Amino acid sequence: RESRLSCMMDDGRETRAVISRSIFADDDEDWKTSTGDGSVTFSRNASEIRFDDYEEIRGDDPQKDPFRSNASGLPKLTHNGGRSDSDKGWSSWWNSSSQDRPGSSTSSISLSEKKSLHDLQAEVRTLQRKLEEARASRWNRLSVRDTIKRMMLKKPYSLEPYRSFEDKVDLLQTAIQYHDGNCIMAVLMFLKQTLRFGKFFDLIVKFPEAEQHYIAYLKQHYAWFELRKLYRDLARYEDEWVLLYNQNRNITPADTRVRRLESCLKFEMPGSDGFAKSHYAAVVKEQIDLLSRQIPLEEKDAKAESLGEYALFKAHPRSSKVLYTSLITTLYYCCFYHYEAKPEALRSPIKFRTDFKLSEKQYLWTALAARARLKRWGDFEQLLTTKGWFGSTKLKSKISFDKIVELLHKQKASPDQLEKYARLVDDLSLRFKVVARIGRHVLAVQTLVELRDRNQLLQYQEKVPPTDRRTHDLIYRSLNDVSIKWR
How far is it, in rounded angstroms, from Cα 226 to Cα 222? Predict the structure, then answer.
């Protein structure tokens, strides 16, 4: 039997085809049509249409493409010839099933959606072409310089064709010449995977820049064991010890840290006078001694604070633990909470100063800051008092008094305390700057009078608040005092 169908194109043209079916075919057999351009197969079971020569029929212009004229990408079919019973059944089945398909001719797609689909198809073809080029060029041997340039430009490349040792050395040399860290690391990883460690190590030693990049790579990836081994092979023993120390210096708890630091003291440094005599050993020993002092101090003070045995802990609760703090911070803690402790006690500030060989300035400044915060002015003055000739006493300090005045001002000392120590600043110009900064106007005017600087006094008069009548009266009397010889 034959039945005629026509495909209506978007531009109005009509393409006719003859659909033939064998009289011996079963009901499930596919329908097939042949045209001058190609053949089309209609499958009843799979509900699909196959265009054998679609590439030949398809045009470059989507508007003229008969198979993209609707949403389903299929031509519109109309039945023009005579229809038998089987033809009518097939037509009714086709029309009913096409209504339920989301991509049937009953659906409509906008022009923008068609264009988007076309762009996606073009992008897929581009990516497929690039993938085929990458696969094809995998084993193509380019020059070393061209390969490095492709690496720098982030283009597809392959290092597998370079199998000889000379080619690998040339790769590393060229990457170093271009000073590109990413290329250097990529080549180093390739060499590490394809060379024995002995040859790889020889290359690292030969090229210091490659050595630096590889060490930085191991640090970023926390490969401490491999980095220690590399330092040992390179005879960089100090760097190896510093790495070992950094791994152990922040371990908790404190007793475990002490043991790990003690193991650092046993480190062997070949080719030197011995690690035990180096500067590093002295620093580690001091850190171990400090931790050994902090552990019992923290345990005892924490217990006393919880039981309320010490009144100072109630008035000034501890803001943090003394454990793991620096030496100066620990000294400040002892000057704040245990200033009256016996000199031989472990928590005594004096014993800290003796055992750790602190300078007089270090101890004095720390103790002054702690006692000033507690407003213990008697202890503060005692720290600055020295004996003179014939048993006399005077205030003297290795720390300049202008720094002490600033410390007192920061700790909100009384005006009397501020003026008392400000008068001990010998340099009058410096004294004026200090008292003017802390707002002691009377003492500032008196200092300017001693300097006999009339112009500076007139300028300072404008800075004094109008409500401070005492200072203004002093300035007025000083300016009119004929006994003062102004400069």
Answer: 9
